[in-house]
Design a protein that fits this description.
Elements (H helix, E strand, L loop, with lengths): L5 H9 L3 E2 L4 E2 L1 H5 L25 E4 L37 H7 L30 E6 L3 E6 L5 E5 L16 E7 L2 E7 L21 E10 L2 E9 L8 E10 L12 H14 L5
Antiparallel strand pairs: 1-2, 3-4, 3-11, 4-5, 5-6, 7-8, 8-9, 9-10, 10-11
Length: 282
């Protein structure tokens, strides 16, 4: 067992996946995309009745996937169609204060909170919408933007009507989010995190404090493209803000995510394996 994330274990058990490159598409996506990928020529971004850009849709790193119907032989990827590499951000943990860096050296796969079905605060692929998975869904109304994460089936309900952060809820793994529009861009401000989870999963040591503060920017540049930026502050553990490079997401050729859950009974073996994997690590 070299991968410790319970969510990916659940995906492997619950779905058939076909992967060419670093990501895989759930069988639900394959069954609904026999006609082929999203058309290459995108029109303008759709609009809500109030004139705001509509972020609604299922989003993924579509350029990294070659989706085929179940039962078909896999096709070799075309060199001409190979996606441009995405920028690699500075790792979150590279900004740790000395005491936090020392603590991080004592942790490993067996300590990953996702082994106990705890969702991440941010996202393993540096996209908050994905969580520990590789796609997510946005549903937009005139006063709310709802972000649904397929893996672990977590969510954020983001009011966009000018209300402040709530003061009547306990800290949570995904925090409390409010949104505002700056022209064509939705700005999401997230606070009130618990400190019991990590920023990322898969054994990527990335603990944070309850002072975690994330600001994300979502811009739908056309019908098929969503750009996401993020800035993360945590003055208790970081020496400087963690700035995530712009991520470009593609509208998926299906309109619903699956429910990929997690139970502690499924992860008992993973926790045992992670403990053995770290045996003797210093």
């Amino acid at each position: 067992m070299t991968r410790s994330c319970a969510a990916f274990m659940t995906i492997a058990l619950a779905t058939t996946v076909v992967a060419i490159g670093p990501f895989a598409a759930p069988a639900s996506a394959q069954a609904q995309t026999a006609a082929g990928p999203v058309a290459a020529h995108a029109g303008p971004a759709p609009r809500m009745p109030n004139g705001r850009a509509d972020l609604t849709g299922v989003w993924w790193f579509g350029s990294d996937l070659r989706v085929r119907p179940l039962g078909d032989a896999p096709a070799a990827p075309s060199p001409a169609a190979a996606p441009a590499p995405r920028p690699r951000p500075v790792p979150f943990a590279s900004l740790y204060q000395p005491w936090a860096a020392e603590k991080a050296r004592t942790l490993g796969d067996k300590d990953d909170p996702t082994l106990r079905c705890t969702p991440v605060a941010f996202g393993t692929l540096n996209v908050s919408l994905f969580g520990v998975g590789f796609l997510g869904q946005i549903v937009q109304t005139p006063t709310f933007v709802v972000m649904l994460t397929e893996t672990f089936h977590t969510f954020r309900i983001i009011p966009t009507d000018g209300r402040p952060h709530r003061d009547d809820v306990l800290p949570s793994p995904r925090g409390d989010a409010i949104g505002r529009w700056e022209g064509e861009t939705l700005v999401v401000d997230i606070t009130n995190f618990t400190d019991s989870n990590w920023m990322q999963a898969e054994g990527i040591v990335s603990f944070h404090s309850d002072a975690l503060h994330i600001v994300e920017r979502y811009t739908r540049v056309d019908a098929n493209t969503l750009e996401v930026e993020a800035r993360v502050e945590d003055p208790k553990v970081l020496t400087a803000p963690w700035v995530v490079p712009k991520q470009t997401l593609t509208l998926a050729p299906f309109d619903q995510i699956m429910e990929v859950g997690c139970t502690n009974t499924d992860t008992a073996g993973l926790m045992e394996g992670a403990a053995k994997q770290n045996y003797g690590r210093k």
